[in-house]
């Protein structure tokens, strides 16, 4: 029943599903709260934060929202909620998700769901035991460029893919501080687990389980304590090679995607616009376009020529669609659809992240199970290592 169990709530009879949101920092205020509020059949009921400024911010955008000072207050009135969304710092994800499931509440957890694949699988087992939905917010499966690439691959526009290059690069020469850039392993900070969670998830979603992982994790900026310039290479079981770059030190950005197939390649520059729109206070609405980008940012498909010199054919970028994630969660809670991102898929990505961390630390290529099932999330990172990159 993992990912498909229903929670006996008023929402099943047509009334909105009531959501408790834990955390109102960047993730909670910019991503989760606006997307929850924009989803038919969901209502933002309670925000957990003790910060008065954040409460005022939430109250201004969502009049009538209730507040709690701690997650414990949610468990004490679990019968008043239908879903808990965890958008608090990474190190709190596992204990809060565990407590929510034990309180009988379905859960959405921001990525990464946990610091280790074993913890993710333990949460998945608990959700299975309780018959509750446990979903992971991997919103970048609904990025405009990723949706476009999925369509191109489904239509066979590139032929068999040989190499997938993905970059999520920023130019932030000065560290901002905070737990995301902390060197304390307990914080689960650094780009490998932050942006790396996205690019690895996308690669596994597109090309299936990993067989080999090689990585380089560097701390480039003066005063930085966690990796801020990281490269991960995956050899997938099917032979596709993914080269993934995440960086806060990119003075010049490379293409977001460069995908090379036997018959053609696809190159796309620029980031999906949805995060910038949400940060600017723009909200999804039925009466206006969402996630659209101008034609000059469309990627190009072709062979033999550089897109920078006009080579290839422009391909319209499909609109980004973050709202689709919570719409799918609402359907899953009502028994009308599948869990959009289950915890075992997240565990498979964590297998790769853990292997990458080991690879970077020891200077080796890490072999994962070559029979890993992408839906089971099973992998073996204790296998032999090799001394060359994949």
TrEMBL record:
Residues 17-136 form the Gfo/Idh/MocA-like oxidoreductase N-terminal domain. Residues 360-390 are annotated as: Disordered. It comes from the Bacteria. Keywords: Oxidoreductase. Residues 152-368 form the Gfo/Idh/MocA-like oxidoreductase C-terminal domain. Coiled coil: none annotated. Belongs to the Gfo/Idh/MocA family. This is Oxidoreductase.
